[in-house]
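Lecture 7 notes: from sequence to structure.

We start with a single chain of 166 residues. Read the sequence below before looking at the structure.
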Amino acid sequence: MKRMADIIETLRTMPYSTISILLFALLFSALSILIQKVTTDINKVQRYSSEIKKWRSELLRAYREGDERKFVKLKRHERRIKKLEMELAKETFKFFIISSVVFITLFLILRNMVYGDAPVVLVPVEVPSFFGQVYEDGIGSLNFIWWYVLCSFSFGSLLRKLTVKM
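Now the structure, written as tokens:
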């Protein structure tokens, strides 16, 4: 038990807190991508999205051009398009629910049991107290939540772009 307390205390201390949260953000982003690949039929989502987009584009073009015959013909497909939209929503909702439960659980464990509100990274600008602390020399700090959000947005987007190309 003392060993776990020592590990947690080390993780709370800068620079270990800075690096460990960055690594957790990368890990959570990778986990999110993995969950999406497992729970979502990506080909189906791309196919349905493309078909819906094409139908909407053609419908809008027929409306703008005043081509009533083509507009009516396209409107006949509306029921099928609505079904595709529902299937698309189901596919993305599965991922959303599973990843949300996993993310919130892990995030709360890290926030409440490890990092709390303590400063975890120094930044070269003053920050509002909502984000962390400001020190006398104009240096600011970010707490766990804001450093995680910054890392997650930065590296999550990068990871997603890299995995799309794979």
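The CA atoms of residues 25 and 152 lie 5 Å apart. Keep this in mind for problem set 3.
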